[in-house]
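User: Could you walk me through two proteins back to back? I'd like the raw sequence and the structure tokens for each, with a short line separating them so I can tell where one ends and the next begins.

Assistant: Of course. Protein one, sequence then structure:
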Amino acid sequence: MNDELKGKVAVITGATRKRGLGRAVALALARAGADVAVTGNSRNPSSLTADEQKDGWRGLPDVVAEIEALGVRAYGAYMDVRKATDVQRMVGEVVQHLGRIDILVNNATYPRAADRVPLQDLDDELWRTILDINLTGTMLCCKYVSKQMIAQGDGGSIVSISSGAALKAPATFSAYAASKAGMHALMSSLADELGQYGITANVIAPGFLDTARIDTLRDPVQWEKRLSTIPIKRPGTVEEVADLVRYLCGPSARWISGDVLLMTGGEVRRAAR
């Protein structure tokens, strides 16, 4: 554990999955000394995956407990990122309990689901839901957290988790890829707007990560086919991405803003060649 983020307060959205990126980011920032607030969208135990329920995982309360076990302060908030009132309430609660907000990591995203179909077969409401969560939710969190950062007058860091799919944009990914590509434009605009306040805004676009989101692809034939497209021949880990988030929020990255950092094992580079 180091102290490069000591005295900072971070908010990570979508951080309840036991094998998810949000939890890994929260723990990485806590190990760097930050106090950490995490969010989830449901108190309902049925929202947990089958393996989480089997392990007795409780979601948000367990992530909060893990953060506190690292010797820093933690706070957990349930909210729907699509609702401005929820986001405003979350910001107020974090400031009340932890004193300020210096870091925002937009990680909340719609799960892999029935959207992976040709556009002609995509449900209209599902399209709206994916864009509302992935893009509008990111916008609302940036809007209200950046207001708090500006008022504090000490700068800050915003990191949004996108996807290599935003650049590769493969078939049947129309809603997901469009929502993540929109995030790139949003963060570029914010970097221009917020730079005068010492606030950086960046995107990390991971590729194929070893999380619960890819459990449906673990059949040996599908798995090998998927890995064959990645030059490094393995999925990325949440810890690798979390470490880049930590770096972007730290003192050595204050001149990095408006950038999209790819972490795809070389896959998107190959697709664009």
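----
Protein two, same layout:
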Amino acid sequence: MTRSRRRPVALLFAAALLASACGSDDGGGDDAPPGDNGEAAASGDDCSVRLGYSAWPGWFPWAVAEDQGLFEANGVDVDLTFFADYLGSLDAMVAGQLDANSQTLNDTMLGVASGSEQVIVVVNDNSTGNDAIIVDESINTIEDLEGKTVAAEAGVVDHFLLLQGLETVGLTEDDIDFRGVLTDAAAAAFAEGEFDAVGVFAPFTLQALERPGSKVLFSSADFPGTIPDHLVVTPELIDECPDTVQGLVNTWYATMDFIDEDPETAIAVMAEMAELSVEEYGELADGTTLFTAEEALEAFQPGDDTTSLLYTADLINPFLVDSGLIPEEADVSNMFDSSFTEAYLDAQQ
């Protein structure tokens, strides 16, 4: 995706190193919490939210929101749960153990195809390199993957990326020795020499690349726009607690404002959550592009390229079926709700 109003993590990291912040006008007084605009968001419902997120640079901002009290500032009672295992968060969402979760478009479609009703209310970011297929020194082309052992977490985003790459040279999963392994375990095993190749997302890419001679064969940067990341909620949460959903959306953008205003503090929180140094976290900067609210609203609109979620979903659906990940295409007709982002933008004006 190529747009002018991006908020790259690279810029945030650079700003942190320079100890300067890009100030933004939040409309509140000097004593107002970030995103509060001088008063806490009104909450007409009495709802608490079980919100899940996992180890991805586009979702670590939730840790900043918790650290800085931004949920409370926006009138939301949140039970925030970090999942070291991304698949575990997807399973918890499908099982009804979460009211909201942070996940990718294709993984949301997998959940919907399985009968789980999920609605995207925030577009967090696009993966622009932080999902990668990493290989040993014997592999130099995608064709070289034929017959090799390739590990990835089955059914989730890097499995999807792997299948996309194979398709470009006429190969399928049947042409490789695929091993379904949880992302953290796959990265560790590859680093120790157990597999010929591995599909992982950041920050586990750094661990996989510790293997001598290893390199990125291809990444999400080679498939622009096809791995967007989101906040999804249940339809019940929208129906029963719409003010709470609005509060979640407001909190996300308040967190983006805080990152702009105090990048050094924000990046320190995210790096600690990722169990990385600030410098190591900075290595992930270019691979995730965080969206502004304007960008997110644009992504919700119909379009004729992968800047549009609807267009991207139409590309992903047949691919998931053809790859055997779902038996029939997911019904995405009720999967996108831009109204909360629209309301946030209206309130800023």
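Residues 131-222 form a domain with the D-Maltodextrin-Binding Protein; domain 2 fold (CATH 3.40.190.10).

Let me know if you want the two compared in more detail.
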